[in-house]
Each structure stands twice: as C-alpha cells, then as structure tokens.
Amino acid sequence: xxxxxxxRAHPHQRLFNASSxxxxxxxxWEKFCAETGRQPSPWQFWRDWYQGMLSNTPTDxxxxxxxxxxxxxxxxAGPEAVAAEIAHIKQKIEL
Length: 95
Prior knowledge:
- This protein is mainly α.
- The protein has 6 helices and no strands.
- The protein has helices spanning about 1-10, 25-35, 45-55, 60-70, 70-75, 80-95.
- Helix 4 (about 60-70) packs across helix 6 (about 80-95).
C-alpha cells in the first residue's frame, strides 16, 4: 500500500525512465505496434492507451471508464466490435 500512496503523490512521474524500461517489454511493445500498425486498426485505441501510460499522457479518464463498462457481449464479439463500440463512445464524449 505504501507504494500506491507514493505513486499518487507524484501523478506526473513516468512509469519507466526511457533508459530503465525492461528490454523484453520494449521489444514486445515494438512488435505489437509493427503488427497492428495498419490504419484503420481495431487496436488503435489500445496502442494509444498504452503509449499514453508509458509517456505519462494517459487517455481521458472518462473514456477509459466508458471502455471498461462495455458490455461483455461486445467484448466477446471480438476486436472489431470493441473498436466500433469505442469509436461510438468517443463520438458521444466529443459531443
């Protein structure tokens, strides 16, 4: 618990220093980006979300909450269905 309190006291601190990020996770991230980089991609939200976490520019918290509340049936329908729902949620938030 003490660690969580410390992180909350420094909300702008990066998760990893660029030189200390584990090489294995960096490699996995680069591979994911290369494999899902075509536009449009059902993985665009997740690439942006993770990159935001790494660079301390997180995705809008309201959007994250709405994504977390997506119904199980949509999640079960696959990445394209989830991406379409996220696009719909983004449109509603932007209004």
